[in-house]
Design a protein that fits this description.
alpha+beta; elongated; 8 strands; 3-stranded antiparallel β-sheet; single chain
Length: about 240
């Protein structure tokens, strides 16, 4: 991007905005072409700024920027429309998506397919679709785009096809491995049904057991990529559930 000092007409979403000095915002964007990037929205906090009220999370924008440094200068932002505002549980799920991108996605690493998956997931949350299948599908896409595609069809140790009736433990750096009876039956053992793995491979979460185990598997893999550092959005969601 260093040889393109000025860009216009870029599709993007706001991931997070931080106050900067007295009147500006430092904004983390997720754009179709650049991926995740930082821009400075000068004067965006002024009452009469044209940018005030536009730089909202989960709303599709068309933006432009100028500059060559790590932080560019935002030159325009226009609302593209089409997405309802998120509220309640959907809003918390949206914050979770954004935190995943902020924590795991390197800056200026383009991911067209991931951008589309994010837009579709946010739109689905806005329409009131069940959040859990949407999140599981996005998490899987994110891991794939980061180079950590899930092995779901073969035993990583034996190479044999996954058996729907067998239990497997999942090693983040290898994949599913058939669990010995002592492991599969052990208290607290984190093992997954072969059927669960096959369902996830098809993005099929109609089985409640697949939905439950899919959440555990994705948490295992994402926590591994985060090096076990906690996510604030998970903590907030958990605290709200205790109220």
């Amino acid at each position: 991007m260093a040889d393109r000092p000025r860009v216009d007409g870029e599709q993007a979403f706001v991931l997070h905005a931080y106050p900067f000095r007295e009147t500006s915002l430092l904004v983390e964007l997720f754009g179709r072409t650049p991926g995740r990037m930082a821009v400075l929205a000068k004067g965006a906090r002024r009452p009469r700024s044209a940018l005030r009220g536009l730089l909202l999370a989960f709303q599709p924008l068309v933006v432009g920027w100028a500059g060559k440094g790590e932080v560019r200068t935002l030159t325009k932002a226009e609302w593209r429309g089409g997405h309802p505002l998120l509220a309640g549980e959907a809003l918390l799920c949206g914050f979770y998506l954004n935190e995943l991108l902020l924590r795991l996605l390197p800056r200026e690493d383009p991911h067209d397919a991931l951008f589309d998956a994010y837009a579709d997931t946010v739109a689905g949350l806005g329409r009131g679709l069940a959040s859990a299948p949407l999140l599981r599908s996005f998490e899987r896409r994110l891991l794939k785009e980061l180079g950590y595609a899930l092995t779901l069809d073969r035993d990583a140790a034996s190479g044999r096809p996954i058996d729907a009736d067998v239990l497997y433990r999942y090693e983040p750096e290898r994949g599913p491995i058939g669990a010995p009876p002592a492991v599969a039956e052990g208290a607290g053992a984190l093992v997954f049904r072969g059927q669960t793995l096959l369902d996830i491979a098809r993005d099929d979460y109609r089985d409640p057991r697949t939905l439950q185990q899919g959440k555990l598997l994705m948490r295992l893999l994402i926590d591994h990529r985060l090096e076990q550092r906690p996510l604030a959005s998970r903590r907030i969601f958990h605290e709200l559930q205790q109220l």
